[in-house]
Amino acid sequence: MQRSETHTLTTHAGALPRPDDLLELNAEIAAAQQTGQPVNEEAHHKRLSSAVAEAVKQQREIGIDVVNDGEYGKAMRTRSDYGAWLSYVMQRLTGWDPPPENGTHQETESAKGVGPRDFYQRRDRQAFPELYADIDREMFAGGRRPMSRQITSPITYKGVDALRTDIDNLRTALANTPGVEGFMTSVAPGSFGREQNRYYASQEDFLYAIATAMRTEYRAIVDAGFVLQIDDPGMAENWDAMDPSVTVDQYREYAQITIAALNHALEGIPEDRVRYHMCWGSWHGPHLTDIPLRDIVDVLLTVRAGAFSVEAGNVRHEHEWKVWRDVKLPPGKILIPGVVSHATNVVEHPELVADRIVLYANLVGRENVMAGTDCGLGGRIHPSLAWAKLKALAEGAELASHQLWT
User: Which domain covers residue 370, as residue numbers?
Assistant: First the structure.
């Protein structure tokens, strides 16, 4: 994994805006699959490959150092999509039953004790019901709710072909940019493990089954020469989905189980080929019930990863730079603070970005900081804003580099 040795390197959390014609192809394929019609896979694969090449080229032209495929293989059908980072794995794992054909949301029994509850029982949603009714109309196409899924049989990995396509597309896109490091994202067991388990004897067994299956994807990404980014919003966000009776200590115990399952899946993979992304969820809501970073940072640092990507620009968490005054970043590790955010349409000024970078560099060392984003920008803000924010990121990193290296 590259380090900021001569200047502050830049990267981002993964998702980038999809081209409109790729979104249209994704929607056509989804509709054809639902009706049993033939799918024009050749046209889709060709456009997917060229779109990845365009995304890599645009990232490099803006000034992003460590780039990815935009997560384009994790299909979105519309510009606004907060869940493609997770939903893609439904096509790559066995063991789950699809949602009801009538498309209605099924309420589930509230989880008692420690364990994530139904999406609509989350604490923040309960605190702001009227606001979230409006948010749902934006996020879920006129109020359409996420469908409940149940795990009813053994989990295995079946997504080798789709994974190979993603790897080939990024490798091809990087072929003309020697020395540029690429990364690919993959979901963590603790984030996927919020689905309803109706097969495994315990939540821990469920998490380890996911980990064993996802190991195929993790290792293939690293073996292809890319940095593996583990996406795990659930590590922090699951707190919002717990029954209010759950204590912080109980939650930490649960989080430790999710990380143990992840580390099981990462066993044998060099830590310097893994970076870990944690956030508090990408939706545009109050986040009043987010768990503080200070309460879970020690659990975070037990992940077998060489770099940690955390929110730092979101106004609910920007103040948490103070955590790193007291918590020492382990030797050899890299911190990737999000110095531009997905949570606002305001484009951060490059000088503010530079100030944020310098702040973290002074705390953990300039060589241990890589400038990133709070969360993926694709699907969460307008495409033009996403690219403008990445440009501000690169410009701010350049300003910070002048301060830190000259």
Answer: 20-405
Looking at the domain assignment, is residue 5 inside a domain?
no
Measuring CA to CA, how many Å separate 206 from each of 140, 259, 272?
A: 28, 13, 28
Pairing of strands 96-97, 150-151: antiparallel
139-168 average pLDDT score: 80
The reported pLDDT for the residue numbered 114 is 80
Answer positive or negative: Cα dihedral of 236, 241, 242, 244. Answer: positive
Number of domains composing the chain = 1
pLDDT of residue 37: 85
Look at residue 116 and tell me if it is in a domain: yes
48-69 tens-digit pLDDT: 999 999 999 999 999 999 999 9
Q: How many CB atoms lie within 10 A of CB 126?
A: 13
Say whether pLDDT at 41 is over 90.
no
* Inside any domain, residue 261: yes
Q: What is the CATH number of the domain that holds 282?
A: 3.20.20.210
Cα 338 to Cα 276, 335, 357, 375, 397, distances in angstroms: 13, 10, 9, 7, 12
Q: Could you give the strand order of the β-sheet that contains 96-97, starting from the edge strand earlier in sequence? A: 96-97, 150-151, 196-197
CB-based contact 357:400 (threshold 8 Å): yes
pLDDT greater at residue 98 or residue 22: 22
Mean of pLDDT values over 328-340: 98
Residue of 395 and 41 predicted with greater confidence? 395
Q: Is residue 12, in this structure, part of any structural domain at all? A: no
